[in-house]
């Protein structure tokens, strides 16, 4: 016999010996939560995980809401999401191009003042684009009115600020 086998059995425990789910396991309600298999520990249920799950709903969670909408609306929502992704990529390319390729202005650091907000806005647009898609998909499935987006306002304000800053830099002396 090998050192790990028990008397009368040479079989190794396999997946069939394990309970199929947490609900099949015997749970002692008097045990602290950290020791109970049916409840997450404080470490796995931290505040950032709750925010992450609230912010980034998985498509499976969205599919569980309501009923499937007309496929044309779902496809239009996906096209809108892809437009937000294209916008984020364009902002990223513009920000990098301003910092790396535009000739220097007479104002020191002007390229960074123009480029960094575009890159930051790119990150914001890409994150909020997914949220925009998920919120609209849930609303369509639940047959509720679509939420009013705040992203176009943020996008317009940052692009306006960068444009005004570029105008000021050009009026102050233009490129070196």
Which secondary-structure class do the elements indicate? mainly alpha
Unreliable sequence segments = 1-6, 19-27
Task: Give the total of beta strands.
Answer: 0
User: What radius of gyration results from the CA coordinates?
Assistant: 27 Å
Shape: elongated
The helix tally amounts to 5
Characterize the largest beta sheet: strand count, sense, and whether it forms a barrel. Answer: none
Distance between the termini: 85 Å
Order of helices and strands: HHHHH
Helix content: 55-70%
Give the mean pLDDT.
Answer: 77
- Per DSSP, what share of the residues sits in E-state strands of 2 or more residues? under 5%
Describe this structure in words.
By secondary structure, the protein is mostly helical. The chain has a domain at 55-171. It contains 5 helices and no strands. It has helices at 47-55, 59-63, 71-100, 110-141, 151-171. Helix 4 (110-141) packs antiparallel against helix 5 (151-171). The chain is elongated, with a radius of gyration of 27 Å. Residues 1-6 and 19-27 have low confidence and may be disordered.
